[in-house]
TrEMBL record:
Protein name per its UniProtKB record: Hemolysin III
Record carries keyword Transmembrane: yes
Cell location: Membrane
Gene Ontology annotations for the cellular component aspect, listed alphabetically: membrane
Binding positions (Zn(2+)): H206
Organism: Pelagibacterium luteolum
Membrane-spanning residues: 25-53, 59-82, 94-117, 123-141, 148-168, 174-195, 207-226
Keywords of the record: Membrane, Metal-binding, Transmembrane, Transmembrane helix, Zinc
Main location: membrane
One GO molecular-function entry: metal ion binding
InterPro entries the UniProt entry points to: AdipoR/HlyIII-related
Membrane topology: Multi-pass membrane protein
Annotated Pfam families: HlyIII (PF03006)
Length: 229
């Protein structure tokens, strides 16, 4: 790929992004920092307690969720705070690919908790296969399918509706409603993600993401630790 072609690709990947103010960047950095602290501290506590109260597969699934949350927020922070240029375009690929992995990882502990319920296995295969396809598209051909990314995220994210009855029967009511609330937080945050003329829109978007991720972390804690104490 020539230098001109590489520059053109970078511009496509970073299209429509307006320069953020210093205040917006500082606020975004703080939000990401808080999110990472939550992921590292609460995630460590969750894994530690899960070792005492959960089965081996469940512990591994929880570890996948916590690790993916840390990866997502780290990639997002690096991308959003990086100056415009080739590195930022590369980080954009990683950031958007990490979203697909995080969505699949969010389902993993809860579906593992369902055990041998048929819908759990089918949904697990669906979310991970579609997520990996999304990762491949974002890393290899990021200039394509850009407009389909958000509908793709939402479709995978809300596919859990197919297993709602199974989840409601197997998990504590509090955990079920925390899962729903987390999904609503993610979906509501997309409004601010798309509202690019609004100052601090990116900060608000990332705040909703962290709220959604935290609600799901609490749901996992309730379902796999608190309910078993």
């Amino acid at each position: 790929m020539s230098a001109d072609e590489a520059q053109s690709l970078d511009e496509i990947i970073l299209r429509r992004r307006r320069p953020f103010t210093v205040a917006e960047l500082i606020a975004d950095g703080i939000v990401h920092g808080v999110g990472l602290l939550v992921a590292l501290i609460a995630g460590t506590v969750l894994i530690t307690l899960a070792i005492l109260h959960a089965a081996g597969q469940e512990i591994a699934a929880i570890g996948i969720y916590v690790a993916s949350m840390v990866v997502l927020l780290s990639a997002s922070m690096a991308f959003n705070l990086c100056p415009t240029g080739p590195l930022k375009a590369w980080l954009a690929r990683v950031d958007q690919a990490a979203i697909f992995l995080f969505i699949a990882a969010s389902y993993t502990p809860l579906l593992v908790a369902l055990g041998d319920v048929p819908i759990a296995e089918k949904l697990m295969i669906f979310v991970w296969s579609t997520a990996l396809i999304g990762v491949a598209l974002k890393l290899l051909v990021p200039q394509h399918f850009g407009r389909l990314a958000i509908p793709f995220y939402l479709a995978i994210g809300w596919s859990g509706i197919l297993a709602f009855h199974a989840l409601a029967a197997a998990l504590p009511p509090t955990a079920v409603w925390l899962i729903v609330a987390g999904g609503v937080a993610y979906s509501a945050g997309i409004i601010f993600h798309l509202w690019e003329k609004l100052h601090f829109h990116n900060v608000l978007w990332h705040t909703f993401v962290i709220v959604g991720a935290t609600l799901h972390l609490i749901a996992i804690f309730d379902a796999m630790v608190i309910s078993r104490m």
